[in-house]
Amino acid sequence: MSRTTAPARTPESAAAPPSAPPPGRRRLGRKHREWLAAGLFLAPDAIGLLIFVGLPMVLSIVLAFYQVSGFGSYTWVGLGNYERMMNDPLFWDSLKITGIYVVVLVPVLFCVSLGLGLLVKQKLPGMSVYRTALFLPYVVSLVVVGLLWKFMLDEQVGVVNRAIRGLGFEGRSWLGEPSLALAALIAVMVWVSMGYYMIIFLAGLQDIPREYYEAARIDGAGGWTAFRTITWPLLRPTSFFVLLMSTVAAITGGLDLIFVLTNGGPANGTSLAIFYIYQQAFVFGEYGYAAAMGSVLVLIMLVFSAVIFAVTRGGRFDDDR
Amino acid sequence: MTAKATARKPVSSRTAFTALAVLLSLVSVFPVFWMVTSAFKTRATVNDGNPLPTDFTVQNFVYVFTEVPFVRYLWNSFFVAAVITVVALLFHSMAAYALARLRFPGREVVFTLIFSTLLITAPVVLIPLFLVARELNLLNSYAGLIIPAIFNAFGIFLLRQFYLGFPREIEEAAIVDGCGHWRVYWNIVLPMSKPVLSALAVFFFLANWNAFIWPLVAVNDPDLTLVQLGISSFMTEYNSNWNYILAAATIAALPMLALFFAFQRQIVESIRTSGIK
């Protein structure tokens, strides 16, 4: 009995070696019934994932070698799309902007949400209210976030410039200059996502046994020493997870926000690769070319992930001394 | 910086932390507050920079509901998000149950395959997914909005983790009693997974109510417009009439804010579990 329901066995043991004496038809029937049940339980999701995730993934690789025109005619172009990409300055610009975006956004988001995690871990009166407040932006859709900030960042009458002028400085054209618009995009992204990663950091921080901190205090370690020798190394799995998630999200996400806040402008200053790819596919109908660029973006994402994996040693801490 | 430090922490640093927390909370909440109050201002005063409306009006909301089929958008979004949530939870919990509790050859392989699809984020496969949906005649239909959004490995993965730690005895007793696997799942496992399912339900509903990109490419029939799409085209149309735009945005955001306040614990819990594993 326990054999048939024991969870998390290896495939070898799951295959039920026939060394046990065959106790007749009933037992065999039960085993096969279990196989059948498993197949039926898995079928809806397995088929769906195959059609709507697996097939598109394979297709996107194949598609990169075709030119797709209008409705459904595919022409083999070999490496044509990749050649075109090499000579497309807009694509290279979009990669450069994506690079800046990721290299600024990910560390800033990491530090801000780790800081918030450390802050809301403190036992202070009213802390649950602060946690709620800091998480709140996350439940607002990126479309609403985009138009709300467009309203607030307006050069003439926006509340941000009003505040800046109130402090005696000159207001800026936040969404009117390429580099400022990219900075604004990053800032808004930090504002939306910091609460989400704060919660993840908080969970990681709360998993660290208190005794470690008490021992450190008895040894006379200060707050900074305790952070460096206890929190930081023990938080590595969480840090790995946050870095990986936020990098993948930075490279492939945020399309909704760009659409509403800047629409890639001004002067393509916020035209991240994912936005440029979207444009090529759904504005100009260049599905094949867009798929080829998408495959390059996936490759970049894998490289970034590998770097993060190497730097954080895959989030393991057992080999750390 | 330590957990137990409260007792020893000098009063001044506690005050500093509290002040910091209050300040950051205000920064965090302010834009949402600004949106809601501005939605109650008139066209003439929407840009006046006052924190509260000087001439309070609900006219903007009336305008949004009468000039645009906003009720239809809200209903479409509700319907699509609700169906995705219910069907996805059923399918994912079935798959997760099989992966966690049933024994069959190739289980680890199936799990690895499903798990590896976690790495494929939606925007990356947007183009081929669009072509697949076109071939299947799913564009411009509720089915096209719903079906591709159901399948994601994240939910399967979370539920599998939950079922791995499930008490085995009850399940065994039922099997000894001669219950089939479906009855065990439906009568015992499903009711016992209510907490984790409700947490995921809130999360799925939220994500799909807020979804924008897939509906944007999958649908151009005005009758199928979802609320996020509705407000984004509303914004283009009413370019600088911010009082109307912000009223529309407030209507779109309000259900999620309400959901958040009602189910805060569940949302936070599902994020926490996703982070630890």
> Could you tell me the mean pLDDT of chain A?
86
Question: What is the oligomer described by this structure?
Answer: heterodimer
Spatial separation of the terminal alpha carbons of chain A: 44 Å
* CATH fourth-tier homologous superfamily of the largest domain in chain A: MetI-like
Overall number of domains of chain B: 1
The biggest beta sheet of chain A, please?
Answer: 2 strands, antiparallel
CATH superfamily of chain B: MetI-like
What is the radius of gyration of chain B? 24 Å
- Summing up helix and strand content along with how strands pair, one would put the structural category of chain A as mainly alpha
CATH fold name of chain B: MetI-like fold
Please explain how this structure is put together.
The complex is a heterodimer of chains A (321) and B (277). Chain A has a two-stranded antiparallel ribbon. In chain A, helix 5 (89-121) runs antiparallel to helix 12. The longest helix of chain A has 39 residues, at 25-63. Chain A has 15 helices and two strands. Chain A has 321 residues and is mainly alpha-helical. Chain A is globular, with a radius of gyration of 26 Å. In chain A, a hairpin with a 3-residue loop joins strand 1 (66-69) and strand 2 (73-76). The model of chain A is unreliable at 1-25 (pLDDT under 50). Chain A has helices spanning 2-5, 11-14, 25-63, 80-86, 89-121, 127-135, 142-152, 159-166, 178-206, 210-218, 223-234, 236-252, 255-261, 273-282, 287-311; strands at 66-69, 73-76. Chain B has 277 residues and is mostly helical. Chain B has one domain: MetI-like fold, CATH 1.10.3720. Chain B is 71% helix and 0% strand. Chain B is built from 14 helices and no strands. Residues 1-7 of chain B have low confidence and may be disordered. The interface between A and B is large, with 118 and 106 residues.
